[in-house]
Amino acid sequence: MKIKELMIILAVLGVYSLSAAKSYFVSPGGQDSNDGVSTGAPLKTIPAAIAKAAAGDTIYIRAGAHSYDSTISLSKSGTASALICLFAYPGEKPILDFSAQPYASANRAVYLSGNYWHLKGLEICNGGDNGIKLEGNYNIIELCVFHHNGDGGIQLGFAHQTINPDGTLCCYNQIINCDSYRNFDFDSKGGDADGFACKMHNGKGNVFRGCRSWENSDDGWDLFETDWPVEIVNCWTWHNGDRTLFDSVYLVKMGVKMSSFSGNGNGFKLGGNGSGGNSAGTHIVHNCVAFESNYGSKKGFDQNSHKGGVIVHNCLSFNNGYNYMFEEDPNSGYVNEFKNNVSLTHTGAEEYEFSAAAVQQNNSWNLTGVTANAADFKSLDVGLAKAPRQANGDLPDNDFAKLVTGSDLIDKGVDVDLPYSGIAPDLGAYEFGAASGIAQQRFTNRSLTGQNGEYSRSCKIFNAQGKTIFRDYESGRFDHPSTMSSNPFAMGIYFMQPGVGTGNKLGSKIVVCK
Question: Are residues 362 and 416 in the same domain?
């Protein structure tokens, strides 16, 4: 079985006028008295560059340690056709170090309340609270690393009592290919610092794709008190909630030993009810991996009292206390759906638990003749999960969670409108034989014809919910062009399946980012 994967990043939300766009440069050796428009006379601080930047401009951050003692605020906004970009300078790795920032709940390292920003390639560490607190709309956070912050690495949302009318606040944000680890909150003794959180009244259309979360004090992902659906796609999480990682950190910071620990230690926590109300929205999780959740609540994939429904497809959960815990029926009109998932080995009392109303189809635990074990996979080694990312920023391309030849998990799935090869989808997070070295093609607005993003492609395109938004199977031939003359895309993740004859599917990802 072979599947060729093509990532296409389409800029289809408007024609971008480059003539007025400016570039600014920030370097640890710069001066804020400079104009910052050349590498030879850079600014010293990011706030100085932000003050100058307008919609369509790009701020390049040079390599080295950039030290800050207060929050960097991103409150101005770009537009749909002219984002404000805050990028690592090509080929360099800037570190935004907030060690000098006091620890306090309001002291976020970066506070993003504006709209239409694109942050890329930044390492943000030692913040007094979150690495990034994101409350704006239509923002992209890509290839960023968050670690050793005083709360979650990145948190989307507001506060317990926030009212979010029609989900129009903190909406349509994308977190792409980011890592988050060793974040810890001192005041709650580890009970709040997740790797990634979209909680407390987030808006519509927020997506996490290709991200990793490990060794955080609370959960890998937390969707507590959500108001709208959240999508988590092709993400990994492991080993959260381990008190021993933070005892010495607490002692150094607070001067006394930590008397107790409150980290929950779940992988993907898909809901939660609190003083701000019950979580809502049918969350979509697919092609994700959770393992080594053996501390606190010990759950790889956790309902956490969420009654708004979940769709969990093609995921892998292993060596957790409980691999899947969805013991409550959803509210009337909603569904908890599990298809093509794998569970193997567990350290808790039960491997999994599902309520009577859960839809379970073609999972490793309910298929006759299928026995999932470690021998089905080339490797389940944490060292491979933690390996460096590919050159394009995607998750490591190695043997982790990949099926072996002859595995009885191959071709045992059911079609859930995700790309697959062969006679049926495989079980687990990755199709057997998926091509390594993902080809990547990037289109800009200048390479498309027409303001609406007209382009030619022989394909069927559907969104992450499985709804088809475009199709053309004429002749069933990949080399037969089909023309899309209108723009049906909003920011988000889509999948493309060109026809390649009969029986096989050639899967491709489309990420609409601006």
Answer: no
CA distance 310 to 326: 9
Strands 508-512 and 492-496: what pairing? antiparallel
Does residue 416 sit in the same domain as residue 334? no
- Chain segment 169-208, per-residue pLDDT in tens: 999 999 999 999 999 999 999 999 999 999 999 999 999 9
Report the number of distinct structural domains present in the chain: 2
- Is the predicted pLDDT of residue 474 greater than 60, yes or no? no
Q: Are residues 399 and 428 in the same domain?
A: no
Known catalytic residues are: 269
Q: Residue 498: which domain range?
A: 1-16+409-514
The pLDDT score that the predictor gives to residue 434 is 64
| CA pair distance 361, 427, nearest whole angstrom | 11
Q: Cα(475)–Cα(451) distance, rounded to whole angstroms?
A: 29
Point out the least confidently predicted range of 11-20, 59-68, 361-370.
11-20
Shortest CA distance to 264 belongs to which of 236, 294, 309, 289?
294
Q: Are residues 150 and 245 in the same domain?
A: yes
Give a yes or no: residue 277 inside a domain.
yes
Per-residue CA distances from 263 to 72, 128, 295, 369 (Å):
28, 18, 8, 39
* DSSP code, position 249: H
Residue 477: partners with Cβ closer than 8 Å, 6 or more residues away? 458, 499, 501
Mean pLDDT of 357-373: 97
Examine residue 90 and state whether it is found in any structural domain, yes or no: no
Residue 396 shares a structural domain with residue 451: no
pTM assigned to the model: 0.84
Strands annotated E in 135-254: 140-142, 145-147, 154-156, 174-176, 179-181, 196-198, 206-209, 212-214, 221-222, 230-233, 236-238
What mean pLDDT, rounded, does the chain reach?
86
- pLDDT (average), residues 390-400: 96
Q: For 332-356, how does the pLDDT look when each residue is reduced to its tens digit (9 = 90+)?
A: 999 999 999 999 999 999 999 999 9
Read off φ and ψ for residue 31, nearest 5 degrees.
-135, 135
Spatial contact of 62 and 25, defined as CB atoms under 8 Å apart:
yes
Distance from first CA to last CA of the chain, Å, rounded?
34
Rounded Cα distance, 142 and 126, in Å: 19
* pLDDT band for position 20 (cuts 50, 70, 90): confident
Question: Coil, strand or helix: which one is 497?
Answer: coil
Tell me, yes or no, whether 363 lies in a domain.
yes
Residues 6 or more apart in contact with residue 341 via CB below 8 angstroms: 312, 313, 314, 315, 316, 317, 324, 363, 364, 427, 428
